[in-house]
Design brief:
Length: 305
């Protein structure tokens, strides 16, 4: 059920920067309207909105300020898409975080720099990386069904959905969760008539040169002096478009992009392919030492568990 994106409409969360911004730009260049849903816009995202105004000809972009942990704000994205464009055809719940210091397994709630509130009984990273894409996918399916039209949901997983990584266990868990969700929903593309066919699939990038890395020194420390192996966000965006427009990427497909591009098998997969896909600089124990120090602080009563 390949979909031609021309004259269609997409909702993309996290499109204020990084991969999702590149994806929004590529969709617009292919004459697809885009609802950019994010908390804020980087200057390059503001320039994109100015280039594709609602009052212009051709493809149009609109910004909807969105906290993806608030379900009412997620619902508002679909209302905006309907108000301006008659509804959405493509949905990308792309917003995500990479085990930030403010919601980190090794900095438990109530222990600075964590901002997770013990009284809320929630982890922000789980709300952003797991709950948000699950809820947006539910909303998208309902949106397509009530309009009786086919649709596509494109997720952003990671090579971390295949391999463990000690310093970022919740992030790794979140991407394993996305892989399981996408594969489980693959049968939607085989829906019997009169149910419209819905494609749900995912891209699984290796290290991507985006602000998620470059704006965070603690993340860059995981790379060490290894400057090779970066995946450019524009390349990921092109693959995300392929997941919509190409027949071979049927529902439930997860495609890795690193030093090579390949479909990730559900069973007996050999793991990420090629050099340069690893996160950590293997001979440098500094990152792991931060984790051990966090555990020692708990033992000394200087940090809550």
């Amino acid at each position: 059920m390949a979909m031609n994106v021309e004259s269609k409409t997409a909702i993309v969360t996290g499109a204020g920067s990084g991969i999702n911004l590149c994806y929004a730009q590529l969709l617009l260049e292919n004459r697809c309207n885009v609802v950019i849903a994010d908390l804020a816009l980087r200057p390059e995202a503001q320039e994109l909105l100015a280039k594709y105004p609602l009052t212009g000809q051709g493809a149009k972009a609109v910004f909807q300020k969105t906290d993806v942990t608030d379900w009412a704000q997620l619902d508002k994205m679909f209302e905006v898409a309907t108000e301006h464009f008659g509804g959405a055809d493509i949905v990308c719940p792309g917003a995500g975080v990479y085990e930030p210091l403010w919601s980190n397994f090794w900095a438990p709630p109530g222990s600075p720099p964590s901002k997770d509130d013990l009284s809320s009984s929630r982890y922000a990273i789980v709300d952003i990386n797991i709950t948000h894409p699950i809820r947006v996918t539910q909303m998208a399916i309902t949106h397509f069904l009530t309009r009786n039209k086919p649709g596509v949901v494109v997720h952003i997983s990671s090579v971390a959905g295949q391999v463990p990584y000690f310093p970022t266990p919740v992030y790794v868990a979140s991407k394993h969760a996305i892989n399981g969700l996408v594969r489980s929903l693959g049968y939607l593309e085989k829906a019997p008539a009169p149910i419209p066919k819905i494609r749900v699939n995912a891209v699984a990038p290796a290290r991507i040169l985006t602000p998620l890395w470059t704006d965070n020194p603690e993340k860059m420390k995981m790379i060490g002096n290894d400057e090779a192996g970066w995946v450019m966000p524009e390349d990921v965006a092109k693959l995300m478009l392929d997941l919509v427009v190409k027949e071979e990427y049927v529902g439930g497909t997860i495609v890795e992009i690193g030093s090579s591009v390949r479909v990730v098998d559900a069973f007996n997969d050999a793991g990420p392919h090629g050099s340069g896909n690893a996160v950590v600089n293997a001979g440098d124990p500094e990152v792991e030492e931060d984790v051990w120090n966090s555990m020692k602080a708990i033992m000394a009563g200087k940090q809550k568990s």
